[in-house]
Amino acid sequence: MPDYKYLLTSVEDGVGIMQLNHPEKRNALGWELHNEIIAALDAWAYDDDVAAVLIIGNEQYFCAGWALDVLQGTSGDDRTRFTDLALKLMVTIYDFRKPTIAAVAGVAPGYGMDVANMCDITIASENAAFGSTQVKYAMNGFYHGMLRKTNTQRARRMFFTGDPIDAEEALRVGLVDEVVPEGRLRESALRLAKQIAEHGTELTTVLKEVALRASNMDHIGATAYELRVTHDLVQRGLFTRRIAEGLDRLRAGRSKATERLAARS
User: Fold this and answer.
1) Which residues are within 8 A (CB) of 121 and not within 5 positions of it... i.e. 6 or more apart?
2) What tens digit of pLDDT does each residue of 34-45 get?
């Protein structure tokens, strides 16, 4: 595992865990952290030991957004390089070939929220808050990232005002998928990530491809595409093994889905 200056990385039960770790700046994204996140994701993209990725800060904060001192301290070509680097990071997360989960605690302002929005699923601690705060600094937030998770009016309200919302409101409007008690963010998000990763890399990469592509198709094109994916999957040895295992569990009354449902009750 490579050594990073501002990232703590590990792999656990098929989950690549990426913990942002620059406490002096509350994980604000400067040159180094941008490059390290990109490098870690590149290293995991074709690693068969990693079927899903969890991006997390700590139980108090996730990411303070762009490193404003970098923006203040750059101009001309350097500033262009920094914004190009930000684009590279967001595209790398957005289009990552495996499922990504963001685990957010504390205030996630501006670009911090945007990074979470680029992930497939966001889990929030009760102490979390989200805001498209770039407008306060005469910049634009990233509207598309909000729009893919919440409704048009809420996305525009956040985009135009920069006012933050708390975790429960973020859950209500769909910006996050789950809110968990303070102090239990890592274990809760990791549990979900492991549930996804247990399907294995071969399947999670196919599912992520479908999630990325089908949403940009019309309903007929998407249905035809997804059926072609199904046809491909049922030809694979993975399907043959999994269908046999699944039927054995059902006959034994040990359905994983039923067990998880019962555990939540």
Assistant:
1) 99, 100, 101, 102, 177, 192
2) 999 999 999 999
The predicted pLDDT at position 261 comes to 67
Q: Where are the alpha helices (DSSP H) in 104-236?
A: 111-118, 143-147, 152-161, 167-172, 185-197, 201-214, 219-233
Is 131 within 8 Å of 175 (Cβ atoms)? Answer: no
Task: Give CA torsion, residues 212, 213, 218, 224, to 10 deg.
Answer: -130
The pLDDT score that the predictor gives to residue 176 is 98
- E strand or H helix at 109: strand 107-109
Task: Give the pTM.
Answer: 0.93
Report which residue type is found at 166: D
Please provide the DSSP assignment of 24-53 as one string. Answer: GGTT-B-HHHHHHHHHHHHHHHT-TT-SEE
Angle at 82 between CA 119 and CA 30, to 5 degrees: 65
Helix locations, 95-178, DSSP H = 111-118, 143-147, 152-161, 167-172
CA distance 247 to 95: 34
pLDDT at 71: 78
Paired sense of beta strands 165-166 and 121-125, if any:
unpaired
C-alpha torsion sign, points 19, 25, 31, 34: positive
